[in-house]
Design a protein that fits this description.
Layout lengths: L1 H95 L3 H8 L4 H11 L22 H47 L5 H24 L4
Amino acid sequence: MAEGLAVEVAHKMSEHRSHDSAREQFLEIVEALMLSVVAVATAWCGYQAAKWDGRQAYLYGTSGRLGVEAAAKATEGGQQRLLDVVTFNTWIRLREDKNSAVAQLYERRFSPEYRVAFDAWLKTDPFNNPNAPAGPARMPEYHNSLLEESAQLSRQSTDTFSEGARAREIAEVYVQRSVMLATVLFLTALAQRFKIRRVRIALLLVAAVLLAYQLVDLEMHPRL
C-alpha cells in the first residue's frame, strides 16, 4: 500500500512539473514575441525619425532658397517701379515744357505693365480732373509682376518653413517612441531574471500594455 501511495505522489509531482514546464514555455514564447516586436518597432521608429529629419533639412533648404528668390524679385521689382516713376516724372516735366517729341520717347520707356496703367490714367483726364489719381502707380490697373511674384515666393517660403518645423516635430515624436520602446525592452528583459512567476507575469503585463499603447500611437502618426 505504501508503494502505491509513493507511485501516486510521484505521478502527481510529474504532472505538476509538466504543467510548470508548459507555463514556462508559454512565458518564453510571449517574451520572445514581445522582444521581436519591440526590435522591429524600434528599428521602424529610427527609420522614420531619420527620414523626417531628412525632410526637415530639405524643407528648410527649400524655404531658404525661396526666401532668397523672393528678396531678389523684390529688389528687381522695386527698381522697375522706381524707374517707371522717374520716367513718368520726366515725362511730366517734358509735357509742361511742351517738348512732346521727347515726351513720347519717354512714354515708350515705360514698362509694359506701367504703360497699361498710364493709358488708363490719361483717360481720367488728370490735367483737368482734380479727382483723378496722382499718377499711374495709383491706378487699379497698375501691377508689378516682379513684386507680386516676390510676395508669392515669400508666402511659399513661410509655408515651407512651417512644414519643416512640422517635420522636425514628427521626427522628435518617433525618437520619443524609441525611448518608450526601450522601456518595454527593459521590462521584458527584467522579467526574464525573476524566478517568481507572479512577478514575472506582472512585469510582462506592464510591458505588454506599454507596447500595445506605443504600437497604436505609432499607427496614428504620419509616415514617409
